[in-house]
Specification:
Layout lengths: L4 E3 L9 H7 L8 E3 L9 H4 L4 H12 L5 H11 L12 E2 L5 E4 L9 H5 L2 H11 L5 E7 L3 H10 L5 E8 L5 H8 L6 E7 L2 H12 L2 H9 L2 E5 L5 H20 L9 E6 L4 H12 L3 E8 L4 H8 L1 E3 L20 H8 L4 H14 L1 E3 L2 H5 L4 E5 L2 H15 L5 H17 L5 E5 L7 H8 L8 H12 L5 H7 L7 E4 L3 H9 L2
Helix pairs in contact: 1-6, 3-4, 3-11, 4-6, 11-12, 17-18, 17-19
The protein binds pyridoxal-5'-phosphate (PLP).
Pyridoxal-5'-phosphate binds next to helix 12.
Amino acid sequence: MEILYKSTRSEDTEVKASEAILKGLANDGGLFVPESIPALDKSLEELSTMTYQEVAYEVMKLFLTDFTEEELKTCITRAYDSKFDTEVIAPVTGKESPYFLELYHGATIAFKDMALSILPHLMITAAKKNHVDNDIVILTATSGDTGKAALAGFADVKGTKIIVFYPKNGVSPIQEKQMVTQKGDNTYVVGIHGNFDDAQTGVKTLFSDKELADEMAAKGYQFSSANSINIGRLVPQVVYYVYAYAQLLQKNEIQKGEKINVVVPTGNFGNILAGFYAKNMGVPIDKLICASNDNKVLYDFFSTGTYDRNREFVLTTSPSMDILISSNLERLIYRIAGNSAEKNAELMVSLSAKGSYDITDTMKKELKDFYGNYATEKETAEIIQELYQKDGYVIDTHTAVAAAVYKKYTADTKDTTKTVIVSTASPYKFGRSVMTAINGKYDALSDFDLIDELEKISNVKVPNAIEEIRKAPVLHNHICEKDQMKKTVKEFLNI
Ligand SMILES: *Cc1c(COP(=O)(O)O)cnc(C)c1O
């Protein structure tokens, strides 16, 4: 069955998957959503005997229906290869519930690699299919992890350029070092004086700038997005929820049909939305537990039905979740409004005008699959230490937010359903916060000495992604004001 993609903000757009990937954002500023969510056409038992790559094909073929089998399989093979440090690609670890789904075994050691390893291949294939001759300029806002994963994915990919904006004072030292040492003639990295929301809003504004689009076209360029607003990010993320369930079945940790819960450390709402799509495809997921840090706009939303970004932006030790405008929530809002672009558009106007919106009671009822809570900085640090002392297992700060929220959830509900905590980054990426949570004495060490200590206490080898940047030279040192993003882009492209 062919799946077309509609905009969340108007009824009249309908495009094929490859066009949606190329465009990133719909012309009306809305996000592309599949007109319906396809059901899995293989049983979970069958899927439990397959490799990650095979499961990826079985899931993605149902969404990306205008890609041929050969195109899709080529993209998958190129993406999920030895860039990952385990053949399983996304292992589920732990001997009992809660399990951890480790999504950080890719090139840049955060879960963004799961989708950004394949997005460049999908995009190049989509460009060929649609006879696009322009160079594609990937414009990306990052809270730290997307930037590096997108840079690594697109570096030296012919026919593309990639420009990444990150909040100069809002990422971890390792995250910044990873980005500013990026090689590749087609890569540009810019720190902005502002926070992630400023970067994301700036990028969205550039996308809907008609004048700029015309100037770009005249020079043979067009924009696309590597942010999770691109459906080409979301679809590959559905795969690992299916695969996680399949692995639990395969290891006899659960019985056929048994429901599981998932806990997702959430920022832009892309990861957890992919879990929701997996549930709607037929994976027996009961509760989707949405974990926030002190920027708890989503927790408030789930408990009150009001989304309100008018609050102080807090810098936390889980910077990739320091977000007050969770872009992908729009896809859920559209859906709980009964797939109504009109209702969604009305709420999004309210969000940009007032910084808030209220959903109706009927919409609120549709959120029953979700549970939201948040973890403070103290709770986050405590759970890192607790898990390390109990099992010798070291988790990063984002995963720790999820683990702390899971603890609150079980205390709240007494629910004993087996649970998977989605582990989104390697502890090496946030070494200082992780090590000082375990023992305050480590704070005296330098960033790289901390890394060596972490290796000793965790018995996990320092990943390549970290070794690479120890001595790498800084290649990008561009800084700009948040209202200078357009000018900066034009300079880079020489227009
Ligand atoms: C991006 C990111 C998140 C948040 O994911 P969303 O899809 O934006 O909700 C959580 N943890 C880490 C480590 C990330 O990089």
